[in-house]
Each structure stands twice: as C-alpha cells, then as structure tokens.
Amino acid sequence: MKLKSLAFALAISAALTGPALATDLRIGIGEDPDALDPDQSRTFVGEVIFAAMCDKLVNITPDLTIIPQLATDWNWSGDGTELTMDLRKGVTFQDGTPFNAQAVVDNIDRSQHLPESRRKSELTSVKSVEAAGEYQVKFNLSAPDATLLATLAARSGAMMSPTAFKKDGLDFANHPVCAGPFEFKSRVQQDRIVLQKYPGYWDADKIKVDTVTYLPIPDATVRLANLRSGDLDIIERVAPTDAQSVKDDPSLTYADAPGIGYQGLTININNGTGAGNPFAKSNLLRQAFSLSIDRDALNQVVFNGAYTPGNQPASPKSPWYDQDLPVPARDVAKAEALMKQAGVDRVDLQLTVPNNPQSMQLAQVIQSMVAESGFKLNIKATEFATMLAAQTAGDYQADLVGWSGYVDPDANLNPFVTCNGGINDSKYCDPALDKLMQAGRASTDPAARKKAYDAARVILDRDLPLIYLYHPTWIWAMGKKVTGFVPYPDGLIRLEGVSKS
Amino acid sequence: MLRYIGKRLLIAIPTLILISIFVFSLQKLLPGDPALVMAGEERDPKVIEYIREKYRFNDPLPYQYFYWVNGVVHGDFGMSLRTNQPVLTLIEQKLPVTIQLALMSMILALLIGIPTGILSAVKKGTVVDYIANIVALSGLSIPNFWLGIMLILLVSVRLHWLPASGYVSPFVDPWRSFATMLMPSFVLGSAISSAFMRHTRSAMLSVLKSDYVRTARAKGLTETIVVLKHAFRNALIPIVTLGALIFGELLAGAVLTEQIFTIPGFGKLIVDAVFNRDYSVVQGMVLCTAVAFIVMNLVADVLYVVLNPRLRDTL
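The joint structure predicted for all components is written out below.
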C-alpha cells in the first residue's frame, strides 16, 4: 500500500514537472481585475495588467520622474495652457494599426467622451487635442495644469488601437488591443489572464519572456505558498507579516518600494447627518486625536514595521513631503491640554472601518491609544460598498479609508480638500486653501508648486479634515529564476528587462 | 414515471419565480450603491448618473424585475457591471468547473464515507467503531481553510507532489486537471464523508436490528450478503436524501475552498458579485443554483423509487 501511494505520487509529480516552458512568466496577483479597458478600468490591479499590455504617452522612473514612452519629447507653452508632444515613429498597435497623432486624438476623445469612461475627471483641464502633424499632438488646456503629464503616465495616457475600440465599443474590454510589449491572448474571469509577446513592439529587445500569465489569488498566504511550490514566478502584495520569511528564504528574492498611497481617517466635518458633533466642530479635538496616536507603534504592531508611518498625503521619503511638519510623536499630555482648551474632557466618536481583519486590528490599536487622552472610540465594521455609500451620503463621523495614490501630489490632495473636490466627503472647505491648491496646479515649476503645497499643508495640519496614518510599502517576492525586476513606487510590475532562466 | 417527473418539473416553475423575486428584492435591500462602486476611486458624478440610467437603477423595482425576467426568458441574463462580460458567458465558464469539483468531492466522500459507515455499524462498540467515529468527528470539525492551507504547505510546498492551486480543464489536459482538483476535492470531500459516515452508521444500525435482517440471517445467508444486499439497500434512503442536498450545495459553489485553491467556480464569483453589487451576476448565478437544487431533489425522489419498490405504487 505504502509503495503504491509512493509510486502514485511519483507518477503525478513526473507528469507535472516535465519539460518546463522556460519563457512563460507566471505572476500571482492579489485580485481579479475589472474591465480590461484603460478607459473603463477602476481597479489598481487592472493597471498591473496594462503595464505589460498598453504603453502610455509617457512613463515614470522608480524615483517618479516623467520619461518618454510613446511620446519622445514635449514642451509647455509660456502660459502653461498648451502642451505639445512629439510622438515616436514606427510604432504599431498589436492589430497592425499605425500609431500617430490621429490615434492620440481619438484616444483622448474616447477617454473624455465615452459615457462609461472613468478617466473624465482626470482630463477635465483638457479643452481639446489636435494633430499638429503626423507625429505631433497639441493639448489645449482651459487652465494651466501641471498634473497633466503625470495623468498621461497612467491610464489616461494608455494608447489603445482606434480600429479596435471603434469596432468593439465597450466589448473592447474582452479583447483589448494596445501598443505595449504584450498582446492580449485570453482571459477566464477569476482564473487567469494570458498575454503573449507582441513581435512588432517598438522596444522588442527589452522583452525577454514569451508569454505572461496573471493568476488572481486573493489570499496572500496561498499566493506565497504557490510561489514557494514553484507554481508561480512572481507575486505582488506580499503580506507585510510575511516579509521577513521571504527575506530569510534562500530560494526567493525579495523586492520592495515605498508606495505613493496612504491610509488615514477621513473626518466628517460638514457632510449631512454625521457632522454636527464636537469632533466635527473643533479642530483642537482633531489635533488632540492625531497627537494621541503613536504611528510608529501602529506600524510595528499591525505591519511588523514594514510600512512607513506618515502624517501627510506624501510619504516622508517623497520629494513632495513637507519636512517642516514631520510625523508627530505621541504626546498624551499635549492632547489632554488641547481637549481642555476645547472645553471637553471626553469625546465619543464612531469610527467606521471596512470589515477585514487588518482594518479591524488597526482600528483597535487606535482605539486603545486614543482612549488614554479621553476619546471613546466606537468601532463600526462595515462591508466596503456600504461604507462607501454612507460616506458619500454623509452618514458617518470618521472613516478608516485609504487612497492608492497618484504620481502627482495634486491628485492625492485636491479632490479631497478643495471646496468642490470630487471626493470631498468631509465637505471641508476653506477658500484660502483652494487658492493655494490652484497655485500648485498652475505652475510647471516644481519648486513653486512645492511652496504652494507646503503652505496648504500648514492649513490642513491645523484643521485636519484627514488624519494620515501610514504609507503602505509594495512588497514583491520572486523565484531565483527571475532576474531584472525593478520595483516601482506605483506598485506596477513592468516587464521590460525581466527574464526567466 | 415520466408523468411524475413532468409534474415535478411543472411545480418547479413557481418555485423558481418565487426564488428570483426573493433574490431580486433582497439585493435591493442591501445598503450600498452599485453605481458608486462601479464609478471607481474618483467617483465622477456624471459617470455615476450614466450607470444609474444605463442599468435602470432609477426605475421602480417592479420594472427592473420585469426587464430582467424578460431578458432571461429570451436567453439574455444581462451583462456583468464589473467586467462587461455577458452573465451567460460567466455561467458557461464556471459551471463545468463547479460540476467537476462537486463530482470529484462527492465521489471521494462516498468512497470514504459509506464503507467506513457500514464497517463501524457492523463492528459497533469495537476499536474500529471508535476510531472511525473519532476520524469522522475530526473531519467535520476541521475547518476547510485550515486543512486546505496545511495540505498546500505539505503536499505542494514541501513534497512537490501536486500543484498548489489553479484550474486546468479536463478537455485540455485530463491528467493535470485531475491533479489540480485532487486536493480541493479531498478538502471538501473529507467533511462530507464524515457526514455520510455518521448517517450510514445510524441507518445501518437501525436496519440491522430489523426483523427481515434476522430472517435473512436465519436463512443461513452469509454475513456479507446480509449486510450489503439486505440491510444496506434499505439503509440507503436517508443517505440518498443527504447526498442530493449536499450535491446541490456543492453546485452552489464552495467559497472557502475555491478561494484557497484559486478555483474559478461559482462560489467565489457570487461572493465577489455581492460585494461589488454586481446585481445581474448575482441574479443569474442564484437562478442557476436554484435550478441545480430543484434538479437534485428530483433526482433524489426518483432514486427513492428505484431503491424502494413499495414507493412505486404511490406515484
């Protein structure tokens, strides 16, 4: 019997190990993407696929500098309302359609006018786009917008074949055609997405694998087990609690990058029924709350210290971080003094958190920290869609909610805090702040922009409509066969230069 | 017999209508706005309004229901709000996977559960009985997700015998398909086999005490024939009932097992669809599952008649 079962196991393993396809790269991703159409897409993990499939007008470097991709060069007009881009010649989409100025015009038009497009708010400053030559496009803006380049380095700048999207409409998502190194081959929802090398890619020398298979595996432990068993080559979003064991494993390679997103509390200042409490009315109480949190301890306890404690939308490692307002140390005495100044000694507050174990743990650590200064935090765990609807409707006091982050600082702040911001669920409003945010967007000079955002930071640090807690770190793990992987702070997996022996 | 089956199928129609109304209304009672979830992180108000219009979220509920039923009757289950794929395509993709997992788990469960049940009834009160009971109790008590992860760590990560997770269609590579499904079927099947074992044991115990079994023994038949031919056949009725119910449940998907072994079946899809308020997917899937339940119940009823000739007169 024993011999039989051993023989059986051997037979199975022999059948499975056989001659391996050396050039199929298998990547474990954290969830199944939504529509594979850069205009319709709304999930982060969709961007991970687009990074291999769809080249953008511009790209970023690991230190977040904008570099050429499908556009080779660009110039701003003196008043900052015109952006002229020179396009790469000899590029074809994966269906053979040539890439030229007209293709760019059609793409931006689709992003702006397709009713289902999720890109509209990113492109509001673009009044029109015109072909200034076969390989030159001009963006006419309604007002100066320094954030546009960073926008074109993301999904809004991802170029799709106009032939394909004109023919397929919304169905484009089921067989997308772009101008990136890998073309779409097949997809089975919740099982796999397969891409294959596009032979006509303009930068084909950098592509070292023939096919890429993305396998959505939601459980981080199972993802890691699949990597360890050799079923996967690369996994994304390793749990911070597993980081050490990956580093200690001689058969794995560890990679990380500080993220551009954040996690924090959104406070209801003036939005519907959830406002009107002392916490909404008094910025002193919010300052006291923020001072009661030991962000470093939070990071150690919940994330084994793998993340970066923070107090601004930009992480302390970002060039946009305001060094004059560092992450505050916990100061219960000062928090109590602030509460006294506000005229209260006890505050009841309801904190809504998504009902996953990690968020619950985070909320409980905060709960015990702020209790010492006199905050009685009542944690309400809610399923995410319900929480989102309640937050928009103003039916909340404080929400634990994160933001996956953009390359440009404007996009990480403007929608949340300006009076008419699209995601301003706090309904916080200060015209002086709006003016500074406007100034930050109007200039293309990084130093001038930084000055405006630093000044805005002072106002926001005083009023705290959002209390920032930490910045997630992107963690990847891969088998030793994989070389050439470069971690990026936007969390995407770029396959240029990645090879598998 | 055929008339009986036809009658049962006709009765199933009002059941299906009731289920679909129930699911439809329950979903709308859920807090959370599908348009908001679908609009993405930036939540552009224009997009939200467009989605509400397009999917008729602004219409009164009875209208929405009739639009949906009208589509279903014409073979159109609607589109997934999340991925723009037709719901029917999703069902076509997931159903074979779920059926394969359900069948393999069921076969494993029967192969383990019924023989141990019979053995433990025949050897009642002996060491064999106690061991079988302890194993069965453990099978019922061990959570699927724990057993699943432990098996992956042992069989795949340490021993490299089977792939850790994923799915391969049996039409593409039957051997690999079997290999990837073996662990998940075992995880699902182990818990079910315990239930079978317990039911077989108690049914056998009561049958073994009955007069006709004593008569059979008195006739001098061998113990094997008494147990397997005379006793077991009559003990099968409750097992068939249990089996049909469990198989129906398996066809509804096994969320935890699917999640751990990354099997693209029904369970994970329905759960994801509920979280994303992907109404048309939830409705389509639940309808499909309801049909599976009704069919399984019918199969059980037919099996009763096959097993027990006395019931044939009642038809």
